[in-house]
Amino acid sequence: MKSPNFYGFHTFAEPGFPVSLNGPFRDNIRLFLQQCAQPQNYNVEGMQVWCTFLVYESRGVVLPLYTVEENVKNSETPFCDYCRCVGWSHHFVSKRKYHFIIPTNDEWNKPLDEGFCHLETHLLHGLIHCNGFGHLICINGIEGGSKYICGREIMDLWDRLCTTLHAQQITVEDLSKKHMTDLRLLYGVAYGSSWFSSWGYRFFLGSFGVKEHNYETAIEILSSLELDHVIKELTLTNGLTNTEQLIQHYRELSQTNVVTVRDLFKFMLSLKSRSTARPSSTAFPTKTSAFSVPIKRCSLGSPTTRCSLRNKSFVKDKPVKFRKFSNLAAHMDSRWPVRRLEHVAEVIVDALKEKKAANSVSNWGMTRQEARDAARLHIGDTGLIDHVLKSMNNVIIGNYIVRRAVNRSTRILEYTIQDLKKGNIPVPIEPLPIVRRTNNVSDDFAYLYVNILLGYDSVKSAVQTILNSKHFVKVWPFRDEDDDSLRFVCRLVKSCSIDLNNEILRVPPREYVVVPLYATISDLKIAIQNAMRDTYCAMEKLIVTDIDEMDGFEDSEVLFGVVESGKEISVRGYGLDLETGLRYEGGSENWTVKCKCGAKDDDGERMLSCDVCETWQHTQCSGIGDDVEAVPRFFVCDSCCSSLAPVQNRSEFGFDLDSYQNSMLMPYSMPELDLGLGLTYCK
Length: 683
What we know:
Layout: E1 6-8, H1 25-36, E2 38-44, E3 47-56, E4 61-71, H2 81-85, E5 96-102, E6 124-129, E7 133-139, H3 151-164, E8 169-173, E9 177-178, E10 181-182, H4 183-191, E11 202-206, H5 212-223, H6 227-238, H7 241-253, H8 261-275, E12 323-324, H9 325-330, H10 338-358, E13 366-367, H11 368-376, H12 382-389, E14 395-397, E15 400-406, E16 413-419, H13 420-423, H14 441-454, H15 460-467, E17 469-475, E18 485-492, H16 502-506, E19 510-516, H17 521-535, E20 543-547, E21 568-574, E22 592-593, E23 607-609, E24 615-618, H18 638-644, H19 657-665
Parallel strand pairs: 1-3, 7-8, 12-14, 18-21, 22-24
Antiparallel strand pairs: 2-3, 3-4, 4-5, 5-6, 6-7, 8-17, 9-10, 11-17, 13-16, 14-15, 15-16, 18-19, 20-21, 23-24
Helix pairs in contact: 4-5, 4-8, 5-15, 6-7, 10-11, 10-12, 11-12
């Protein structure tokens, strides 16, 4: 085994360092692992692990960047929930996924454990399919558990890595919060874009039918609000004189005119950045304050599990705080109602009690898989179980405390319980956040955020539109390097030999292929064929027969002079396996989304299926709120109701359609502006 190399954290993956990679991602990742990573002498859940050692220079510490190769044919989760939730359901299943992970500081000298994909504590977790499409799952800066590295530095590293490896597109779902503020709303108002826009991420997909023009219009409405008008309305309606005094205070501090909400929030962000700067005696290089680093979380799970980026504060050198699970569940960003979350937690506690009673030894515990299997005996929704399990740590359920820790002997994450009545455990309950006016910039920010953005009725529609805009994407343009190779963007198109339906044509495979300068047309066909076979499960037997742009040329013709390098070409052939279970990233089931809000695909929000037409729609758009315990046992959508029975104003499911329309339209449309989010129904 070769001795490991060490690379600087802030310079790793800069152009040409430590290696120049000029091919597509599927080839570049192999060269990267060969030349820049050390293979580990262990596997995790059957997956091979490599490690790249990075030196954080100012602290003199070495941290690991793990790369884990997941072969989908051997994986328990071959399909990709992240692809499904961003409109990539009809991408062909890639053969390999690559996880890029920097664990939390305390795990730097330990091997990765089983269940690493589900941990929320990683400083970095990104996933890229071998076709170059991928997802940023989580980053955690200073307040998320990192002792040295802030969020911007981690994002810089991730962006350099994706660029060096020639990723095609990377998505992120931004549900991050900071001091009770949704950062996508705060940064949207202050800067006109997401926090991730600093690295080229742009709006990609909104929930509940939100389109990009809706998002941009909503940002413009909020950012251009005049403060004098806001003060007048809030004073008349709510009597919020503190808001006026607070705005006036920051106007006096500013050296420029503070006229709009955007002016105010940008100025306060700059003040916060200066007020949280570290003293020079303990400073180390950083590009941002703690305030501007979003803390995010995301977990893997079943196709129904929601990927989310959640806030979690990191308290150093303080006693462990326990939270009542009921309080935690009430403030979780979940598509399941609180009562269902609590029921699952109680089932898991019962299983832990049985396991503890059956084991007389003190060193006992249940692995995540054991707890999951025990819960499945009573609950069929595995996504719901996974969602609850990842939140069960230092929580109080009934008379028991549930803890989660790595078993030192097995190195596996385990759950245990302790009886509050018998253990005499001091339980400092973590209080819920309270917004109040203080002389602290962060608290002032939270106060204005709640009272101007969330409490101002005139802009509820625009606020909700931005909050429903969660998915962002960065697209790397095709690069034709200045060397002795020819590069092409290849798309598989419909032919008589390959029966591609319209859904596949909507998102066809798009692969980069590199051939020598004097390669022939025949060489290009073979290269395309090998690339497709190496990338997609459904194309293992693909035979490329034709290239549209080279029709009329013999296969022996040299490419140079026939077609320009960097061109997109259309490929035809046969041998596509349309019967394989590993066909689409969205799964093997056939489903159709057709919701009142205009959604045509899964957007990650809670949905239910009509028992007549079997189309899926949002529970919220169907009049089923978050507080219901379960969806109706039998559900019929409005369209099917209209065709099966005379249409009435009052539905058979117990809610008034007029009231439903008024309550649902309120957050999504304004009289003076059509955001394209109005809901319709038959009457």
